[in-house]
Task: structure prediction
Amino acid sequence: MRLFGTRRVTSDYRSGNFTCPQCAAERTYRHRKVAKYLVAFNFPLIPLARLGEYIECAHCQSTFLPDVLVRAGDADGPHTLSEYEKAVRHTMVLMMLADGEVDDNELDTVLDIVNRYGDHPMSRIDLEVYAEQVRRLPQPVGTYLRQVSPSLNQHGKERLIRCAMAVASADGKIDRSEVEVIREMGRNLDLSLHELQSIINAEPEGVGA
Result:
């Protein structure tokens, strides 16, 4: 056992009621903060850096940036998407653009995954426009996942990995290279090896539906 190390710690800051954009209803929320801590014997001792914070709906478990508490409950605009749903869209598009080539089959696969796992339908034209926006500001998938990880709870991270599993299994099988990509995604999302392996071993939700 290591005597000292660092670890991400998520703690509750406060709670209350808000209009959840995902539920489109009044719900209880938890305001949660994520920080990097110095740990000794696996016990958090000293906060070293603030990594992020989010609002978590107690009903649907979706997470949002804190300004959702002061925004009007407009459920139609893209700004009302949960952090998980935004992460799915952005990650799938980054993966699609990774090889520099985008064909119709890739667009169809990404669109199917985005709409299967999301709650706000996206059209083919919407996806093409969004992909072009992402293309202009490219970044590695790992870099993006490390940035967004503090805004996602465990539920959101697991669903994001399941989306990647669904993409990988679209051709009917998942090879070793695809598993390694998914494992790297898990590391960037700060999932433990046990947590990630449990997701990989389970049948991805929605696959074959």
About this structure: The helical segments are 83-97, 104-117, 124-136, 141-148, 154-168, 176-188, 193-201. Residues 204-209 have pLDDT under 50 and may be disordered. Residues 25 and 129 are 30 Å apart (CA to CA). The two ends are 43 Å apart (CA to CA).
